[in-house]
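Async update (no meeting this week)

Hi team, since we skipped the sync, here's where things stand on the single-chain job. The sequence we agreed to prioritize is pasted below, unchanged from the tracker. I ran it this morning and attached the output directly underneath so nobody has to dig for it. Comments welcome in thread, and please keep replies under the output.
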Amino acid sequence: MKVLPFKIPKPEQDTLIYQEDFETSFYDKLHQHEEIQFSIILEGEGTLIVGDTVNFYSKNDILILDSNMPHVFKSDVKASEHSRMLSLFFTKESFGSDFFDLEELLELQKFFKRSKHGFKVTSHKKVLKKLFLKLEASSKLERFIVLLQLMKIASQANYESLSSFIYDKKYSDNEGKRMRDVLAFTMNQYTTNITLDAVAEVSNMTKNAFCKYFKKRTNKTYFQFLNELRIENSCKLMQTQTDSSISEIAYQSGFNNISNFNRQFKMIKGKSPNNYRKNPNS
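Output:
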């Protein structure tokens, strides 16, 4: 696996790489790799940031991240003692530049189209999990066959995109480190009162330069992103802290004004916090 800027190293000798991550927490720094990542979460939950979008992941989620897509998994170590993920890594050219253009494989083109913004599979999860669990004891040929089966099912299943916007250029070493530092700071401090001065200092840029930099690479302002991170956290707390009031959850998520919390929540989720708590999936 070729090592790109700010990414985790992987072996180079295999065209299809199987990996099991079994740790207290997943690798929680922003990174990218040239391979498509096809994963299932077997244990753990937390925050997944892809492109411009904050997502939450949990047990049995099946996730696909495209080539060179910057992303970060931030495990919630309070919610789960261990984090376990099974993954396959490959590129569209791993098996030959024209392999996926063969007539017999054209139905898999939908998989690559969906993967452009990353996606989470929301149906057929039991059969996909069963296939993933076969990988550890499989030969390399068997893993290749399983990959094609996984791709076919993921191409036909219901799904949700993980991001609405992906910066279309690879991050340079300096850009990758800068964005990684900004996201690490934000994910560690979002429950506190973050100022533009503070985050600009982390990025080692002036305030104006940072605002333009962040907007260009995420298609939204820094504080839009920050509010989305806080709102997504509040949604999780509403489902896990059933005895906490909406006000308590708002303050735990970084809002110091309940009116602003209600306004931001409705803007982002399309419903009030109370209605969300009653019907989170509607």
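Quick observations from my side:
The longest strand covers residues 36-43.
Confidence is low (pLDDT under 50) at residues 1-5.
Reply here if anything looks off.
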